[in-house]
Amino acid sequence: MKEIRIHGRGGQGAVLAARMLASAFVAEGKHVASFPMYGFERRGAPVVAFTRVDDVPIREKTQIYTPDCLIVIDPGLLTLPTLFTGLKPGGVFILNSGKKLEKQPDKNLKVGGVVNATQIAVDEIGRDIPNTCLLGAFAAASGWLKLESILNALPDYLSGDILQRNLKSAERGYREVEVTKW
Amino acid sequence: MVSAQKGQVRVITGNAVGAYGALLCRPEVVAAYPITPQSEIAEQIAQFVNNGELDAEYVEVEGENSAMNVVLGASVAGARVFTATSSYGLVFMYDALQETSGYRAPVVMVNANRETPGIHAVSSGQQDMVSTRDTGWVQIIVENDQEILDQIIMSYRLAEDNNILLPVMVNYDGFYLSYLAEAVEIPLIEDVDAFLAPLKKQTPRQKLVPGVNIGCGTHGIEMGYVEARYKHCQAMERVKPKVDEIDKAFGDYFGRYYGGQIEEYRTDDADIIILASGSATGTVRTVVDSKREKGIKVGLVKLRLFRPFPAERLIEALQGKKAIGVIDRSVGFGWKYGPICTELRALSREIGTAPILSYIDGLANLDITIPHIERVVDELDTAAKGKPYQEVTWIPMEE
Question: If DSSP codes are grouped into helix, strand and coil, which group holds residue B108?
Fold first, then answer.
């Protein structure tokens, strides 16, 4: 089983990203379970979303404490003292940032992918909703699924012009992510 | 009856599944008021009505008390009805819940379980369900998204059975299931029609129509009231075997069985048993499997029916076991045990001498984690060997 935890803030699309990721994995024949955890629906409040992927049906309904992958949509959340706690060896880290990673953020990380998803989202969508760009970056850096599976999942959630803009944003995330391996 | 056709598989949330469950059963009147974590279901059904997928009257109400009274009126007038709520919404319709069950109105409602202690307690917990235990409703608890859908379909078959005629509340954990997206098979509507068809072969139930005087509701005093209450309680007793019968019919047709009143998982040769309900049971299954690999003979009994309480099935499943642990996602004020544990203890004499340990966990969005459940198994294993044990444990308070 692979466990993916997404950290963002209300309005950035963390919840939707987790669901889109689940749909993309289903298209590749996997079993998935995805849910977010937050209290009130509030723009700007921290949101955590979880997606599990496996070859067999997923029974546990707990939050994710031992992630294989962390996706951080808001770089301000890098200060969370427990962000990397429980990360499994060989971990994957996807970060929305305009700055490069200067050092390995955690000894259990094997792959780091950084992309300025906020800038790409503002360019392509016209708003700071960097979720789909980071999904593209995730596909490229992790290699766990094809970009096509992500692109094919988006029409389940978006339509019309906004879909086209998000498809571009995801493609750019896939192409422009800077991948570091440790 | 032959088998149902394969349905479409979609990755959707528990709330969306709830809306599809309703859609497939063709309710004629829906009234619902949005509340976190249920809002999506109220919105989705409104969309189904708006885009013509569901031919129903959707009544916009100013609150949950009106929602229940609207569906009660429509149900007494003969319509198939549906509503959905959570937490404060559920307790805001407290009087209407009792009115509805007193009318023996076959209303089907889903409740996304949420805490009820203060307006800011927007978090998961079964306290809302426990707080409405004695309103005369059938209360069923489900484990995952597929079971939400399947149980809504089974609930119409139960509620509208002429030998039952009681309202049914389908409970699923708010947040943990209401927002959980997983793959769900959505049956074809003609197959759901076929499964519900036996209801149409019954003598039509009495309807309230203009200009015709009939008596209905629990409005009598003295013996009129006592008789209505007696019949209501007798109907509750009939629910228990009926739930098992409908589960079998559903499984035979759609290929998915849930065990009826309770589901037993690896209990046959088990010495110790965890009794749990809702989304946490999925996690308990994984711990049962991992502890079995280490040689501990543990099993799970999943409580599906909370009201009526499945006494006979529980006695059969638990008789002769060496220790039983009950995980409650709510509290029982005035009893030190959790509410489901308190109910189980009423069966102590029939079950035997096994120690019954009460665990309170998963309140207010807190997680019932794998380490929590492993701890329960280890303590039950100790208790089963005759060693001292703690009778009541609030797991988060001891972390």
Answer: strand
